[in-house]
Structures are given as C-alpha cells and as structure tokens.
Amino acid sequence: MKKVDKQLDIPLHLQLSQIIREMIDKGELQPGDALMSEREICRLQGISRMTVNKVIVNLVNEGLLDRQQGKGTFVAFKKKRHRYEKLEGLTQILKKQGLDVSNELLEFSLGERSQNIQRKLQMDQSVAYKIKRIRYINEDPVVLETVYLNPKMCSNLTEDLIQNYSLYHIYKEIYQYRVIKAEQIITPIMLNKEEAKLLKQPRNTLALKIDRIVYTSDEKVMEYTVSIFMSNKHDFEIVLHED
Description:
By secondary structure, this protein is of the alpha+beta class. It has eight helices and ten strands. The chain has helices at residues 12-25, 38-45, 49-62, 90-96, 115-121, 159-164, 167-174, 193-199, and strands spanning 65-68, 72-75, 80-84, 101-112, 127-137, 140-149, 179-190, 206-216, 221-230, 234-238. Helix 2 packs across helix 3 (49-62). The protein is elongated and about 70 Å long. The N and C termini lie far apart (53 Å).
C-alpha cells in the first residue's frame, strides 16, 4: 500500500481513500480480497484510527468495500442491478433474473396497531396483520421488510400462506384482488442497532427505507410496507413510462 504524504495540503482521509480506490482500480485488490485491518493501516500510514475508520466507512457506504461482522473488511463484488418496470413483488422480479430468493419470517401477528398504521391502511379499526421478515438474495440478507395488512381485506390469513406463497400471489389467487398502483417514498437512512444486527451489517451503514402503499383496482389499500434495502451490494432500478 502506497503511503500518504503528510506534507501535502490534501486531507489525510482523502489521500488514503484515493490510495485504496487506486489499488482496487488497478487490480491490486480484487473483489473478495481482504483489506488490511484498521490497526495495520494506522501503523503503516502513521495516522489515527479515527481517520482510517472514516475512510473505510465511506468506502463501505459507496459500495467499494464490504464489512462483514467478525470477519473483517473486503473488496466488494460488483453491485447487482434489479430492474422494476411494473407492479409486482420482489420475489417475482428476482426469480426472473435467475436469482435465488428466500425469506426468514420474524413475526406474523394480528394485533393492535398505531394510529399512523390505521391511517395508512385507511382502516376504521385498530387491529391489523403485521408480517416482519428478512429477504435473502442468494443467501445474502438484503431487505428487512415489515408489512401491515387490513384483516378485512384478507380474512383468515395464515402463517402457512405467508411461508409458502408470495404476497402478490396471495392477493391475486387467494383473495381475488387486482393491485394496480403503488405509492412509494424513498428515504436514505443509517441502520440502527437492531436493523444492523438482522441484516448482518455494521451499525450506521447507509441503506434505503422505502415506504410503500399498494392499492387495488377499486382504490382500496391492500398493504402498507416499510422496507429497508441494503444499497451497498444491490442497485434497484425503477423505470418510469409515459402514460
């Protein structure tokens, strides 16, 4: 690894960042290769741990590096891009791309919900279904998803159905609804302690939070979902068409 030049006016963290970028660009560090530990970089460069950590966190957030808890920091593989062109579930989209999609169900419950959830679902009662799960792409945890459903729209929903079918299949085939529209709000966030643990990422890793409301053909709210997407390994492309 090339050394920073403390005689230059360029901040040390920018110099170190450029050095690591060049090592990746020139192939000195290949995807999957381990980066030196922060302590080793500090010793080699003669700079503070805080400076080194700042550089690594920034490169992780950019998707150039991948931090794996308990293992170290590695050069990230090229991000996979997933294209959204019509209203369908994540499972259907990814399976069309030949990817293996699986879910880990964390919670399936029917209970009292906040007034905010009631408003989102346009309910006149406080009880709703909650489905919380981790979505895996090729065994990699990529999305933490929490779905809220109005029990009047999907009575007698069971955990068995959730485990064995996609939600869009359940809406269409089990309850005979046709979903026609989704409204989404996308917000950049940093993972909190619980989110980071579930997605196996360092705390404060950058991610995208997507709040989505899905409507049926008769303008009823089918679902309200909060999804947290890991943006350091996967890109999600949304294509908009003119009416």
